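Data availability (excerpt). The following record was deposited with the supplementary files.
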Amino acid sequence: MKNMEFYKEKLKRFADVILKEPFPYWFGAIVLGILNVCLLAVSGEPWRITSYFAHWGAWVARAFGARPEFWAFYGERENAAALADGFLRDGGSVQNLGIIAGAMLAALLASQFRFRKIKSYKQVIGAVIGGFLMGYGARLSFGCNIGALFSGISSMSLHGWIFMAGMLAGAYLGSRLLIKFFLY
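Predicted structure:
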C-alpha cells in the first residue's frame, strides 16, 4: 500500500510538470531541433512557414478574381503545384494550421488564453506596421526566423548566421522604436 501511494504521488507530480508548469527553454530547443531533423528526414525539406502563407494569400486573391497563376512567384514549378493542389494537399499549409492549433492548445492548457482589452490604438497601429514589416521582410529574405534562421543554422548554412546578426540588429532597433513611439 505504501508503494502505491509513492507511485500515485510520482504520477501526480509528473502530470503537474507536464500540464501545469512551464517547460524550460532548453527542453523546448531540444524538442524543436529533433522535430526539425524528423521533418527534414521525412519530407526532404527543412522547416519553413512563410512560403505557405504566400499560398494562402494567393488562394484568397483567387477567390476575389485575381489570377495568381500568372504571377512570377507561381512561375516556379513547386509554387505552381501548391497553388493548383489547394489547401488540404499543401503539406506546409496543414503544418501551419497544426502550429496555430498547437499554440492555442498550449495556451489553453497553461490557462493563458484570454482576450484582452485594447489599451491604446497606437499599439494596434504599431502591431499592424510591425506585422507587415515582418511578413514583407520574411518574403524578401526567403524565410522567417524558422526557415532562414532555425533551419539555416541547423543545416549548417552560413546564411542562417548572417540572418541572425541582421535579426538581432533589427530586434534592437525595433524595440527602441516600440518604446519611443508606441508604448507611452
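Summary of structural features: The mean pLDDT is 83.
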